[in-house]
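Check out a protein:
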Amino acid sequence: MTTPFSGPIILFDAECVLCSANARFILERDRAAVFRLASMQSELGQSLYRRHGMDPNDPVSLLVVEGERMRRDSDAVLFIYEGLGFPWRFAGLLRIVPAALRDPMYRLVARNRYRLFGKRDTCWIAPPQFRDRIL
């Protein structure tokens, strides 16, 4: 499955309360409209997860897909925040911490996200002003 949008696509868990709050945070601060979002529950999201060797029914990571390039775990998070511009791009300073240390922390939260933050009964739906950025 392809999409006419060529910029980075953030694949997130629309049933996760934390992930949905982060999606809204990104949409509200991405003034240049750099990112598009797709839920991992959507047909496009499932297709992109499979294309990159991951099971969309067992989501263990947020993904950012840009063409054939895929970022995951803490690299995906840092890429997103760097792309939001000032002041959020300063999150990129965390790259001084090796991914071998950042990613286990990311995965710990990801594995426990429903227990820590909750799970929605239905997928999150973006506010009307952002719907053109949801794939």
